[in-house]
Write a structure and sequence with these properties.
- By secondary structure, the chain is mainly α.
- It has a domain at 27-85.
- It has helices spanning 9-21, 27-44, 46-55, 59-65, 70-85.
- The longest helix is centred in the middle third of the chain and has 18 residues, at 27-44.
């Protein structure tokens, strides 16, 4: 079970789909990717992450509302999957 907090069901599924497309289907490794992606967001968008945690709002919805280019996020997911999968 993935440890999502403050992420709506739609964004949870989008994350799972992206990680699976990148080649990871193991739940434990997916959780590791999820934790590392949250660290990546905290590093790149610290205020947004903090605000969403304080509001208990969906980080994915906040990212969409801010019109952040998803390309960097998709690349981060691919890189994180490679790192977690040992490749």
């Amino acid at each position: 079970m993935l440890g999502f907090r403050y992420v709506c069901g739609r964004h949870q599924q989008l994350f799972v789909d992206a990680v699976e497309r990148a080649g990871c289907r193991d739940p434990e490794r997916m959780e590791e990717v999820r934790r590392r992606l949250l660290a990546w967001f905290s590093e790149n968008y610290p205020r947004m992450v903090l605000d969403q945690f304080n509001r208990r709002g969906c980080l994915g919805c906040a990212i969409e509302a801010a019109h952040i280019d998803p390309g960097a996020m998709r690349q981060a997911i691919r890189d994180l999957v490679r790192a977690v999968e040992g490749g």
